[in-house]
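Handoff note, outgoing to incoming analyst
You'll be picking up this chain. Sequence as last confirmed:
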Amino acid sequence: MNNRFAKLEARMEALVEGTFARLFAGRVHPRDVVVQLTRALEDSALRGAPALRYAVRLNPADAQALLGEQPRLAEALAGELVTIARAASITLPAIPEVFILPDAALKLRHVAITADAEGAADPGFTQGMTPPTPGEPVAPPAAFLILEGERTVPLTQPVVSIGRRLDNHIILDDSRISRAHAQLRLRFGRYVIYDLGSTGGTFVNDQRVQECVLRPGDVISLAGVSVIYGEEETELQTPNPKSQAPTLSTPDVLVSPSEWT
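Most recent structure output, in case you need it:
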C-alpha cells in the first residue's frame, strides 16, 4: 500500500478513536465525520484548489446538543482539517473555516459535509499558519474495469460513479444494481471502491466491503454482477508473468460520454 495512503488511513483511525469520539460523544458516528471531511478535502484538491470553507450539516437536535456540549466544535474541526491535510500532503493556503449548520432534512445521528472550493477564509485566520510541504505527486494508475467478461472501460477520472441511474459514469442496466450503487475514488495513486448504501451490497473477492483499496485482478461483485479491476503494466511496475493486462478497447454505451470528456 502506498505509504502516504497508509499514513492518512492510520491518522483517520486515530481521529475516529480519539478526538472525534470525544467531540461527538455518541451523537454522530465519528468515522462518518472523519471520512466525509477527508473526502471533501480531497475532492476539492483534485478540482485544483483545496477548499477553505466546510459546512457540517446535522439534524437540528444533534446540532443543538453538540454545540451545547462543545461550543467550539467548529474551531476544533478546523484544526483537525489542518492535521488531515498535512497527513494527505495537501497544502492549505490558510486555516479553513467550518460551519455547523442545522438541517431538518437529516435524520438523527446523520451528517452531511460539503466543501466550498471557491470560498476564502477571513484574512485574519492566515496569521501564524505554516502550510504543510506537499509530497511528490502520485501518478494515477492506468486502470480499467472489465464488464461482463468482455467490455473494457478505462478509468480516466478521479471519481467514477457506478449504478443503474443514467447519470452515472458507468451505467449497469441490471435490476440487481442500485440506482447509485458504488463509487471509485482515486486516492494517493490507488483506486478505492466505496459502497453507496446499495441494496445488494458491494463485494471484493467475496468479501463484503464499505470501502476497499483495489489491486489488479480484484473481482468486484455488485449485487452479483461481476466486474474485474485491472491496471496496465508501466515501466515503474514489476511485470507479473502470471498475469497479463488485456488490451484496452473502446468502451460502448455503458459509459456516459459527456462525463469522460
